[in-house]
Design goal:
By secondary structure, this protein is of the alpha/beta class. About 50% of the residues lie in helices and about 10% in strands. The strands form 5 sheets. A 6-stranded mixed β-sheet has the order 8-11-10-9-12-13. A 5-stranded parallel β-sheet has the order 3-2-1-4-5, with helices on both faces. Strands 15-16-14-19 form a 4-stranded antiparallel β-sheet.
């Protein structure tokens, strides 16, 4: 069994200054607290149920001994102090024992707890970001920073600091600790301190070298008073009485109190992660006749179950209620209901999925069970029971945010999407089979040519094998800038399409074959998916309104938004889709809608003027960035400008732009700088 001892103060300080400010709907600042409670949740969920938290006290005995102790630190912010106080309340409610003793720091309490419990557990993991506590490492005692994959042991300390954990204290005594405003001995920095400790072992041993000619030993002996003062400051007090037994440190969550506090702080996902939930309401399952006799004025439906108040029945027996326009309906994904009853001729309903997505959907795709857990702290098997109450809140938010008209549009769109899904799209299956054979023959031809010209046989779809072939066999060298851009987490270099196109000039014969092979291979895989989905001469895809943060639709089973368009081979696949007899295909597209929205939001005069003149915005941007006439902009310049235009509004950094355009970071930075000079309103908006 492992015991985790947490240095609360170090994490609260770190979170407060490192994490973004986070406010509840009532304006309470909780950013540092949220980061801290996520750490506690991670420990409880993944590591151990034995947990002890320690706090610094406001009074400090070291300050009484040395007035300048930590004098370099500014007074604690009031907002941070509030969050630290709240953290104690929260820990108590989720069953974590904590301790704060007047005059002592959290480090002292931790040292005392280690002394008390180290022989009673398999291991102690001190959870802290404070290097002072490294001196406690040894035996079954480790330090963890809350994020690393491993716990820090004696080898880690030796590798990082050059001394053993037991020598950390003496190292700080000699060279001082600027974070605590402890002065070291002049001329002795960390490197010199390490050398002295490796040679003599400890400060006490150095004190015994009375006749030494060593310059630094003499310096230490001359400053013995200061060193002894530093020893007093740095030594952890491990003799403090810890008023808990090991059994007391087992986390015992008070469910009701925890829910009350987590709800107040609006940390509802924490309750979800800790598995804290209220008892679910009891429901009476009744037959359809009894249900109809109740004359329900609303119904909530999820999958095949229908709810009214605390009664439920099966949908198949009461479908007539769906078409009663006087009865309010609450759905989760109305499109599924339309497919169930084979019509969208249903009115007077709300769709929780769409409403939730519009208000809170940027964080994740709506999930009915998680929504109810967050809103009601209930793990339910009857989500529809809660739809009415959730939708009442959503409707208030929609009106508050002036989004109700948008919601109505999305509701109507779901009906259109249902019809599109129901109708499907006609496909020429024999044509697909023919181009599949054509592409397969071409793929074999390309591979044979590659093997003949390269004199190697490798899997051209394998990033690892292609990377080794290009950078080792062909010995293509990159400059340092592109090495950083192209290197992957595995240590190999990327061989994505963009990278291969960048490398093409180095060996156009072989690299062009790799690019072509991959293109045909990808097209063949796509054709296989399409063929497998054909039913009665049609493909019936699914459309999703609530999967993207930008509000765009997605298509799946199969993804019909992924049909290639940039190559002649890709266009061949598009030719397999046919309009119904007597109809034609018509293509509609918004004209640079993202940039028009940014022009409106940023009120940038140059951007607005370009749109009002009907100019090609990418050509206009390229003209300004490259300093050429509007009509002299090349396709390559326009391509770069297009990447910049769309990238910047979605937060693309110089590193990201460099990777996207396969250029060095300095050039990418210059492009972004030039862009903001052209559109200063966009820069102001983005900041």
């Amino acid at each position: 069994m492992n015991l985790f001892i947490v240095d609360v103060s170090s994490f609260m300080y770190k979170n407060y200054y490192a994490l973004p400010k986070l406010l509840t709907s009532k304006g309470l600042e909780v950013g540092a607290l949220y980061g801290f409670i996520r750490l506690i949740t991670k420990i409880i969920k993944e590591k151990s149920n034995y947990l002890f938290a320690c706090y610094d006290s406001k009074k400090n005995i070291r300050k009484e001994f040395y007035q300048n102790y930590k004098a370099n630190r500014k007074a604690i912010d009031e907002e941070l102090a509030k969050q630290i106080d709240i953290s104690k309340n929260l820990l108590g409610r989720i069953g974590v024992k904590y301790l704060e003793i007047d005059g002592y720091e959290a480090d002292d309490l931790i040292a005392s707890a280690v002394e008390k419990f180290k022989n009673l557990v398999d291991s102690i993991i001190i959870t802290t970001s404070d290097k002072d506590l490294m001196q406690l490492i040894g035996g079954n005692v480790y330090v963890w920073d809350g994020k690393s994959q491993v716990y820090f042991d004696e080898k880690f300390v030796l590798d990082k600091y050059g001394v053993s954990p037991k020598q950390i204290k003496d190292m700080l005594v000699l060279c001082g600790d600027s974070s605590d405003n402890i002065e070291g001995i002049e001329g002795i920095g960390p490197k010199t301190a390490v050398k002295l400790l490796l040679k003599y072992g400890s400060v006490d041993n150095i004190f015994s070298q009375q006749n030494s000619d060593d310059f630094y030993v003499k310096k230490i002996l001359e400053n013995r008073d200061r060193i002894e003062k530093n020893i007093e400051l740095v030594t952890l007090k491990n003799y403090i009485d810890i008023p808990y037994n090991l059994d007391d440190l087992l986390v015992k969550i008070d469910k009701n109190k925890a829910i009350e506090m987590l709800s107040f702080l609006e940390f509802k996902n924490i309750a979800l992660e800790l598995g804290i939930s209220k008892e679910e309401e009891k429901f009476d399952e009744i037959d359809s006749k009894t249900f109809l006799a109740m004359n329900p004025y609303y119904i909530s439906i999820f999958e095949n179950e229908v709810y009214f108040l605390k009664y439920k029945t099966r949908l198949e027996n009461i479908k007539s209620l769906l078409f009663n326009n006087e009865i309010k309906k609450y759905f989760y994904n109305a499109k599924d209901i339309f497919h169930n009853v084979l019509t969208d001729d249903i009115f007077n309903y709300d769709d929780v999925m769409i409403g939730y997505y519009l208000i809170w959907g940027s964080s994740r795709k709506p999930d009915p069970f998680k929504i109810i857990q967050e809103k009601h702290f209930v793990q339910t098997s009857n989500p529809a029971f809660y739809f009415k109450e959730i939708m009442d809140e959503i409707n208030l938010k929609l009106k508050e945010y002036k989004m109700y008209d948008l919601y109505v549009n999305e509701i109507e769109l779901s009906k259109v999407l249902y019809r599109m899904e129901k109708n499907g799209i006609k496909v020429d299956l024999s044509y697909l089979e023919n181009i599949k054979k054509e592409f397969k023959d071409k793929l074999d031809e390309i591979y044979k040519e590659f093997c003949y010209k390269s004199q190697v046989k490798i899997n051209l779809n394998s990033p690892k094998q292609v990377s080794e072939f290009i950078f080792k066999k062909l010995n293509i060298k990159l400059d340092k800038e592109h090495e950083k851009i192209f290197k992957t987490k595995t240590g190999n270099y990327s061989t994505s399409e963009d990278v291969l196109k960048f490398l093409m000039p180095y060996n156009p014969q072989l690299i062009s074959l790799i690019v072509s092979y991959r293109e045909y291979s990808k097209l063949l895989s796509f054709i296989d998916v399409l063929v497998s989905e054909v039913k009665n001469g049609k493909i019936y895809t699914h459309f999703d309104q609530v999967s993207t943060t930008t509000g765009r639709l997605t298509s799946y089973k199969p993804n019909l938004q992924n049909i290639p368009i940039k190559s002649l081979q890709g266009l061949k696949i598009r030719n397999a889709f046919l309009p119904e007899d007597g109809y034609i295909f018509v293509s509609f597209d918004y004209s640079q809608i993202d940039l028009r929205v940014i022009a409106h939001l940023s009120k940038d005069k140059n951007l607005i003027e370009a749109f009002k003149k009907g100019e090609d915005i990418h050509r206009r941007t390229a003209s300004s960035i490259f300093g050429v006439d509007y009509f002299s902009v090349t396709e390559e310049m326009r391509r770069i400008a297009k990447t910049i235009n769309f990238g910047i509004i979605y937060g693309l950094t110089p590193i990201g732009l460099a990777s996207e355009l396969l250029i060095d970071r300095s050039m990418a930075s210059q492009y972004i700088k030039s862009y903001f000079e052209i559109y200063p309103g966009v820069k102001k908006w983005s900041q």
